[in-house]
């Protein structure tokens, strides 16, 4: 939102860009395109501008002839390759793929791997800026420009040609590899700093540049040569080579395996499994083997992806501005997320004063023109959204006159914009394949900024109209123009020659971008994540209201995906993304390189926090999934603000109602309507929102439903269920906790969930499959169990089975067996199975099987005792015994274990206690010898995978020459060094090592009792 205002709040580094200049362009002759009762023009209104460079000169997409007739995704992570914002830079701006960063230059492709962050802008911004480690190119390449020569859903192929040489690379989100196809010259890698060669296998070269390890791969008949900062390989008759950034030098052999499995495409497929209340997305790469037969690859998953995948991941990790990226070996992976529903309005509740609601609605309708001053696309959208939220309220209190007046206002303004020739209209740009509203605002015309923000309000308003007047929403009436806006902002079709696929929604990053030209060193950005969600929620409601289930399901996918990304990247919900020295709990803006506690127009904390909340609608309920996140955000706003909100009181009251309804109600009662609403809000909507949630409780997002327009609420342990039914017949919504709510046709209903099932909403009448047989457990080990069951029956045939561990679905299989792995030894598990037929109707659960894995049960507790035999246990021995610490052999082993005594506890579970640290008191004795220095190291393998994620070495303790036990204490000695990051223990391992750092003789450690280790876990 508003990506065009005063930029002074951002750092100079973030905004650094190349010089300005001009690029020519042209305009076709005018024509009016009729769509139903509406229309748009294919030429801009007189005096208006379209996509331009920073000097105001028109620009056209910078693509190769092969892509000239293909709509360009103008707002993607790589779009600066096609959208030339500065005339002096015909290549690209910084492109952040993660883990790699890129920039096209005359000699090829700059490649970087930023692993060190910066805190800039007086502590208001963190960034992992692009810095080239090397440039991939060809000897002598001096291309006058770079163009896009093909793209997938998250990959792109930049292309260079200087007349004698050509280079085509493929890069992408999550790709540790860069793939190159070339002609006319030798492969050339130019490093930014002198390279250190750590492996030389002829055509495979391992080099370290600026602390980062890379592998260079030339055809098998080639050989890399190094001369200063220049590395070359003659390609011969084979016109390809590649490189990879390695997670470690030891990974070279693994990454070599896929060096010539070139990625040629990327595609996401999603499926809303309505009966399960889940959406599954599969992210797939296509590959081509340039040498050999390997067609696999490695790809790095962002946090919002690996949190929701059940696919196996490797131990490899990469650094990124979005937190740790985990690596998948294979060409695809899938994510599955629970769907949090949306509502066109909150349900009727006993605690709402209908008279007050009506008075506040009347106040809006009697204050003059509600569109006064709203002339451009954004502010018209805000006005439409403001009125649209009042329609279901008026209907709910039985005020049909005000409801119909509000609907008339919405229709009138929408129809005005949807008709060519007036003061406002939409125009189609044939070059950029985009629909621009004029008067435009905040760069929606010249920079193609914010279409998804602006148009979200139009789509949401149209969805409200369609809810009450389906005829108006028909394609032959005004629905066709609504669909044009939908296709411009979020086109579901890849093969549409009119608009690009999902213009602004970056499917791999999991969120939208405000623009794509990346005219800043920090890359692209998005400020108002909530206005992006407003579009997704609008797609759900418009699709449901018009019977377009494919569009509805697309909205479900986009909203569910972006909801998790918002939680992780805008709000740091798990507090695992932002650098530790970035002291803010939220960012107002996510940048390609990081995030900023800022907005484009003000440093006011209310707006920095509030811009990611408004507009507050039934599409905002997903935020309640992370109530602690919301509470932290509001608390920080009040700290930074010096007290509660002043300008956007109503926005923050409504947010507070999502996690603390009584507190929000107290604020409302304190002010009692004596305030000025935020520009997109009304007192009627704010009061109704707060009073309703105070009556029925905040959203309970642990409960899902078989409808995307259904939500459960909870107050003092009592749930209220609400849903809207867009269909013409009564149907039943089934909630995941077993509740049933019958909802009349075209209505919102609420209740206690005790109804009797009729016809499930959106599901054809079908008896569904029967229950499978109760699973039988075999081959039970410490960490796995194999389950088999007798098949279910169904008249339409069985498609697959969902396997549940407890209440969590862990697998979907087509057969009648499944092996569950990565279990904890000595632990009790329960399993059940449900069948799904070929119409995706899920049947009842099987009986429950109870299985206890073999081996010792998991260890918990914070106090451990060193025991003879190398064990750490949570119980002390009856008596103490001595263990001999071997001599240091007269050499210095400070900080490095030397013949250590090792004590371990495995299968440990624990939650990290904030602010706590490792502590120990070990009893040691060197007899009459002085200065025999005992030293200890405590290591934590958080997941039991054999890699110690956190290692703490403590300063040694010099013994005195008096016989008798002395206390070697971590508190007294302090730490020598630490590495890694603390985290929760899940089937983890704790290891203690004790050795002699100095001295030429043995000493003694008391074990069994007396020597204790206290770990920072509960």
Describe the fold and architecture.
The protein starts with 11 loop residues before the first helix and ends with a strand. The chain has 17 helices and 59 strands. With 1018 residues, it is α+β, with helices and mostly antiparallel strands. Helices cover 19% and strands 30% of the residues. The strands form 14 sheets. It has an eight-stranded antiparallel sheet. It has a seven-stranded antiparallel sheet with strand order 3-4-5-8-13-18-17, with no helix packed on it. The radius of gyration is 31 Å and the shape is globular.
Quick synopsis:
The longest helix has 22 residues, at about 550-570.
Layout of strands and helices, then pairs:
Elements: H1 12-15, E1 32-35, E2 38-41, E3 95-96, E4 101-105, E5 108-112, E6 118-120, E7 125-127, E8 134-138, E9 146-151, E10 155-161, E11 166-172, E12 177-183, E13 187-191, E14 196-200, E15 204-209, E16 212-217, E17 224-227, E18 230-233, E19 240-245, H2 252-256, E20 261-273, E21 278-289, E22 298-301, H3 303-306, E23 317-318, E24 325-329, E25 332-338, H4 354-365, H5 377-388, H6 391-396, H7 400-417, E26 425-429, E27 434-438, H8 451-468, H9 475-490, E28 505-506, E29 511-512, E30 525-526, H10 529-546, H11 549-570, E31 589-591, E32 594-596, H12 605-610, H13 627-641, H14 649-657, H15 661-671, H16 683-696, E33 698-699, E34 710-715, E35 718-725, E36 731-734, E37 740-743, E38 747-751, E39 776-778, E40 785-788, E41 798-805, E42 808-813, E43 817-820, E44 828-837, E45 842-845, E46 849-852, E47 863-867, E48 871-873, E49 881-885, E50 901-910, E51 919-925, E52 933-941, E53 950-954, E54 957-958, E55 966-969, H17 970-973, E56 975-980, E57 985-996, E58 1003-1007, E59 1012-1014
Antiparallel strand pairs: 1-2, 3-4, 4-5, 5-8, 6-7, 7-32, 8-13, 9-10, 10-11, 11-12, 12-19, 13-18, 14-15, 15-16, 16-19, 17-18, 20-21, 21-25, 22-24, 23-24, 26-27, 28-29, 30-31, 31-32, 33-34, 34-35, 35-38, 36-37, 39-40, 40-43, 41-42, 41-44, 44-45, 44-46, 47-48, 47-59, 49-58, 50-57, 51-55, 51-58, ...
């Amino acid at each position: 939102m508003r990506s065009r205002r005063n930029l002074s709040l951002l750092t100079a580094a973030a905004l650094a860009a190349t010089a300005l200049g001009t690029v020519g362009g042209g305009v076709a002759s005018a024509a009016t395109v009729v769509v139903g009762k509406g229309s748009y023009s294919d030429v801009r209104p007189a005096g208006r501008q379209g996509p331009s460079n920073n000097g105001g000169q028109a620009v056209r997409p910078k693509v190769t002839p092969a892509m000239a007739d293909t709509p360009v995704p103008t707002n993607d992570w790589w779009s600066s390759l096609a959208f030339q914002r500065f005339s002096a830079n015909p290549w690209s701006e910084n492109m952040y793929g993660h883990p790699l960063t890129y920039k096209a230059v005359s000699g090829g492709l700059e490649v970087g791997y930023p692993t060190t962050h910066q805190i800039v802008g007086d502590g208001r911004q963190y960034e992992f800026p692009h810095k080239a480690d090397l440039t991939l190119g060809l000897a002598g390449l001096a291309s006058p420009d770079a163009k896009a020569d093909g793209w997938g859903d998250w990959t792109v192929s930049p292309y260079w040609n200087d007349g004698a040489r050509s280079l085509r690379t493929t890069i992408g989100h999550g790709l540790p590899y860069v793939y190159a196809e070339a002609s006319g010259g030798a492969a050339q890698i130019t490093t930014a700093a002198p390279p250190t060669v750590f492996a030389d296998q002829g055509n495979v070269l391992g080099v370290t540049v600026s602390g980062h390890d890379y592998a260079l791969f030339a055809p098998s008949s080639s050989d890399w040569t190094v001369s200063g900062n220049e590395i070359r390989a003659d390609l011969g008759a084979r016109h390809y080579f590649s490189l990879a950034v390695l997670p470690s030098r030891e990974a070279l052999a693994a990454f070599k395996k896929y060096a010539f499995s070139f990625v040629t495409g990327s595609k996401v497929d999603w499926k809303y499994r309505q009966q399960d209340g889940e959406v599954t997305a599969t992210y797939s790469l296509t590959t081509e083997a340039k040498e050999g037969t390997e067609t696999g690859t490695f790809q790095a998953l962002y946090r919002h992806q690996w949190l929701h995948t059940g696919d196996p991941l490797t131990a490899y990790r990469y650094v990124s501005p979005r937190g740790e990226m985990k690596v998948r070996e294979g060409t695809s992976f899938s994510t599955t997320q629970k769907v949090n529903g949306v509502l066109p309005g909150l349900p009727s509740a006993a605690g709402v004063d209908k008279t007050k609601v009506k008075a506040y609605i009347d106040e809006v309708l009697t204050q003059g023109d509600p569109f006064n001053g709203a002339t451009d696309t954004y502010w018209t959208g805000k006005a439409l959204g403001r009125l649209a939220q009042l329609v279901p309220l008026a209907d709910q209190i039985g005020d049909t006159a005000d409801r119909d007046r509000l609907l008339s206002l919405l229709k009138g303004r929408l129809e005005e914009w949807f008709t060519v020739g007036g003061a406002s209209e939409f125009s189609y740009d044939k070059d950029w394949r985009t629909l621009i509203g004029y008067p435009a605002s905040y760069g929606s015309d010249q920079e193609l900024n914010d279409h998804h923000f602006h148009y979200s309000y139009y789509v949401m308003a149209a969805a409200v109209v369609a809810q009450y007047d389906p005829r108006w929403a028909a394609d032959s009436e005004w629905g066709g123009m609504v669909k044009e806006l939908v296709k411009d902002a979020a086109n579901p079709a890849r093969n549409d020659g009119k608009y690009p696929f999902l213009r602004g929604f970056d499917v791999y990053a999991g969120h939208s971008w405000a623009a794509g030209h990346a005219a800043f060193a920090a890359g692209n950005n998005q400020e108002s994540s909530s206005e992006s969600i407003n579009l997704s929620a609008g797609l759900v409601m418009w699709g449901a209201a018009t019977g377009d289930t494919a569009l509805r399901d697309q909205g479900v996918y986009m909203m569910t995906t972006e909801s998790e990304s918002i939680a992780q990247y805008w709000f740091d919900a798990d507090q695992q993304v932002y650098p530790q020295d970035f002291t803010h709990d939220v960012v107002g803006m996510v940048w390609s390189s990081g995030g900023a506690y800022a907005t484009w127009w003000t440093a006011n904390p209310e707006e920095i926090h509030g811009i990611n909340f408004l507009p507050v609608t039934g599409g905002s309920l997903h935020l309640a999934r992370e109530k602690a996140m919301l509470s932290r955000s509001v608390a920080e706003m009040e700290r930074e603000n010096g007290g509660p909100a002043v300008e956007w009181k109503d926005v923050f009251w409504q947010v507070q109602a999502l996690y603390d309804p009584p507190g929000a109600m107290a604020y409302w009662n304190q002010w009692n309507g004596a305030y000025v609403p935020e520009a997109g809000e009304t007192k009627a909507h704010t009061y109704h929102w707060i009073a309703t949630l105070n009556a029925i409780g905040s959203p309970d997002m642990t409960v899902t439903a078989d409808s995307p327009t259904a939500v459960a609420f909870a107050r003092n342990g009592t749930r209220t269920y609400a849903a809207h039914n867009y269909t013409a017949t009564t149907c039943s919504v089934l909630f995941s906790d077993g509740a049933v709510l019958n909802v009349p046709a075209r209505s919102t209903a609420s209740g206690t969930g005790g109804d009797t099932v009729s016809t499930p909403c959106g599901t054809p009448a079908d008896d569904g499959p029967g229950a499978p047989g109760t699973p039988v457990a075999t081959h039970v080990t410490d960490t796995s169990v194999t389950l088999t069951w007798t098949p279910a029956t169904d008249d339409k045939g069985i498609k697959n089975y969902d396997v549940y561990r407890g209440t969590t679905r862990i697998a979907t299989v087509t057969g009648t067996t499944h092996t569950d792995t990565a279990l904890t030894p000595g632990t009790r598990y329960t399993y059940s199975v449900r069948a799904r037929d070929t119409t995706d109707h899920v049947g009842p659960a099987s009986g429950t099987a109870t299985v206890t894995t073999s081996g010792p049960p998991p260890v918990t507790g914070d106090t451990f005792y060193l025991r003879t035999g190398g064990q750490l246990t949570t119980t002390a021995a009856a008596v103490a015994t001595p263990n001999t610490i071997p001599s240091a052999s007269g050499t210095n082993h400070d900080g490095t274990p030397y013949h250590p005594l090792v004590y371990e506890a495995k299968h440990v579970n624990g939650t990290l206690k904030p602010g706590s640290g490792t502590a120990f008191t070990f009893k040691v004795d060197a007899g009459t010898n002085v200065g025999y220095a005992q030293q200890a190291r405590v290591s934590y393998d958080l997941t039991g995978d054999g890699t110690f994620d956190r290692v703490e070495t403590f300063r040694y303790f010099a013994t005195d020459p008096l016989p008798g036990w002395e206390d070697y204490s971590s508190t007294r000695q302090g730490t020598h060094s630490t590495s890694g990051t603390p985290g929760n223990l899940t089937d983890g391992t704790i290891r203690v090592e004790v050795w002699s750092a100095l001295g030429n003789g043995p000493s003694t450690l008391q074990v069994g009792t007396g020597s204790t280790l206290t770990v920072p876990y509960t």
